[in-house]
Design a protein that fits this description.
The protein is mainly beta and about 450 residues long. It has helices at about 5-15, 30-35, 40-50, and strands spanning about 70, 85-90, 100, 115, 120-125, 125-135, 140-150, 155-165, 170-175, 180, 190-195, 205-210, 215-220, 230-235, 245, 250-260, 260-265, 270-275, 280-285, 295-300, 305-310, 310-315, 325, 335-340, 340-345, 350-355, 360-365, 375, 380-385, 390, 400-405, 405-410, 415-420, 425-430, 435-440, 445-450.
């Protein structure tokens, strides 16, 4: 297999233009010229070259400007977070082409920076090129790199740097008031705080957790599923511990954050509920003609989309009502996320639904088992059906990653978190090459959902 850099260098050699100082003279074979001394055209050409007077060598057209290179400011990712993409723009102000030399692998002197695709091998006169670059965040700190691109004109030099922030917190929730707070991606046992004691005298289950307004909100209801909705709030900004904010209404089974407010699903009436801070919740109006249970909700493109049993898909703009409530089929839909400018929902018998606007949906099937978990990070979707894990970069084509009964809960960069039974796993690598148990929850409890905190500016 030919390395991409080798291909780039081959193209470079093939496409490098002749130096302007070299004169190209097309003539017949020298042997033919010797055997035909009396032919007119050759003698005329020689005479013209000799009679031009003092011969002056040709030189490159003058260029008084330096090549311009612009490197936009990088986003600041969390430690070991998703790959960061950027574009370096180079402008050639000269009236001649400039050929880029050397191996693109050597243009950065820090291995965290690299090229995501082969660059052009030359820059046309008075034109620009764009070089696609990436940065792989590792530990917290400032990462710097010199940029040196040799050319047949002048070496192009610049400097770039990026700040990698602290690792993001991860929260998992489940039955019995289970709340698991993982810091530093669970590198050490002390980074994992497991709480499952009830905040009230009544035991209750958490069904979902969402992050917004710099706080985690866990939602659910009592174990009978018939009485109070319980909301445990943890404020990251003020470093507060979990506090209870119950409301005398039916349980909230799912939540999402978008446009500066939270929207959830009330279990019994199947109505949307909304809140600015996750403390006081206002109930919206129900759709009388749809009775099937809703299971999950996601926000994207200015819209909240909820999915449920019998193919139910409901839409809300502000959490006060379902502005659209339809059935996409007769299969139950369990989970929905919004990534890559599209909604992706999964459900029974390998069902996958995708939509850009939440109204028109494309359907496909992957495997035979029910899919109840899907995550996204590093430009890839991962889904699990209890037996196998599949991956896709565009939701159109899915490939099997590995056979595994780990249920996926969250992903960041090349780290994937999931659970099997009472064990919480952390897997490393894009193919989940290594999966290790980092914590174990008490017997009788079950995990349901997980969410990372978010960096709004990223």
């Amino acid at each position: 297999m030919i390395h991409p850099t080798t291909i780039w260098l081959m193209l470079q050699c093939a496409c490098s233009p002749k130096s302007p100082s070299e004169e190209v003279v097309w003539q017949d074979d020298p042997q033919d010229t010797q055997n035909n001394e009396d032919t007119g055209p050759e003698e005329i050409i020689v005479e013209e070259l000799e009679d031009t007077g003092t011969e002056e060598p040709l030189s490159s057209p003058a260029c008084t400007s330096d090549v311009e290179i612009q490197i936009p400011t990088w986003d600041s990712p969390p430690a070991f977070g998703n790959t960061i993409h950027n574009q370096i723009q180079i402008y050639n102000p000269c009236p001649f082409s400039i050929v880029l030399l050397g191996s693109p692998l050597d243009w950065f002197d820090n291995s965290n920076f690299s090229l995501s695709q082969l660059p052009p091998n030359h820059i046309e006169p008075e034109s620009s090129i764009v070089i696609e670059t990436t940065f792989e965040p590792t530990h917290t700190g400032i990462f710097e790199s010199n940029v040196r691109i040799p050319t047949d004109y002048k070496e192009i030099t610049s400097h770039t740097q990026i700040e990698v922030l602290e690792a993001l917190d991860l929260v998992l929730v489940g039955d019995g008031g289970l709340r698991i707070h993982i810091q530093n991606y669970g590198e050490n046992p002390s980074d994992i705080d497991i709480q499952h004691e009830s905040l009230l005298s009544t035991d209750y289950d958490f069904q979902d957790v969402c992050f917004g307004n710099n706080r985690f909100i866990a939602v659910g209801g009592d174990q009978s599923g018939t009485e109070n909705a319980h909301l445990a709030l943890y404020s990251k900004q003020s470093n507060q511990d979990w506090s209870d904010h119950s409301k005398a209404d039916n349980p909230i089974i799912s939540c999402a954050y978008g446009d500066n407010f939270f929207v959830g699903i009330a279990e019994h009436e199947q109505t949307p509920v909304h809140s600015l801070a996750g403390v006081q919740w206002q109930e919206g109006t129900r759709t009388p003609w749809m009775q099937h249970r809703l299971n999950d909700i996601a926000f994207g493109n200015g819209t909240f989309i909820a999915v449920g049993d019998q193919g139910r898909i409901s839409k809300s703009i502000d959490g006060t009502e379902w502005t659209s409530d339809i059935s996409s089929g007769n299969l139950d839909i369990h989970k929905i996320i919004y990534e890559q400018n599209r909604f992706v929902a999964v459900g029974e018998f390998g069902l996958i639904l995708t939509s850009v606007n939440g109204m028109q949906w494309e359907e496909q099937v992957v495997g035979d088992n029910t899919i109840s978990h899907i995550v996204y990070a590093n430009d890839h979707f991962l889904l699990s059906n209890g037996m196998k894990i599949y991956r896709s970069s565009d939701t159109l084509f899915w490939e099997e990653v590995k056979e595994s009964d780990i249920k996926l809960l969250a992903k960041i960069g090349t780290l994937t978190f999931g659970f099997k039974g009472q064990d919480i796993y952390k897997c490393t690598g894009e193919n989940l090459d290594t999966c290790n148990v980092i914590a174990t929850i008490p017997m009788g409890l079950h995990l349901h959902e997980a969410v990372f905190e978010e960096i709004l500016d990223l």
